Structure prediction request, 119 residues.
Amino acid sequence: MNKFMFLWLFSFLLTSNLQAVWNTGNNLVGDMREYDKWENGNRDVDFYKSASFSSYISGVADTMIDASYICIPEGVNSGQVFGIVKKYIKNNPEKWNIPASHLVIQPLLDAFPCKQEKK
Prediction:
């Protein structure tokens, strides 16, 4: 199965199983805003939404690592991964209507490609 077919299937399964919560990036954006408030020291936040954002990103990243689609270098922490995804989301508001998983997968593929072995 090629990389893009896997990612499409992964996105489809993820969004179809969690559709009520994560059907589009718009849902993810709302949770990201709560995470941003918490990260900036505001404790008057919806902790469920804040935790949902970080948990969702972590789950997608872990799945991609396990499938060897991304290779995160040693020393990169979760905050950096969240920052990469947040930057992509903030810079692409025209994509907020697409499945949330696509807004996580693309920046992780761009930021952490696995080096291909030379043949």
Observations:
- The two ends are 20 Å apart (CA to CA).
- Confidence is low (pLDDT under 50) at residues 15-22.
- Helices lie at 3-17, 19-22, 25-39, 47-66, 78-91, 100-111.
- The longest helix spans residues 47-66.
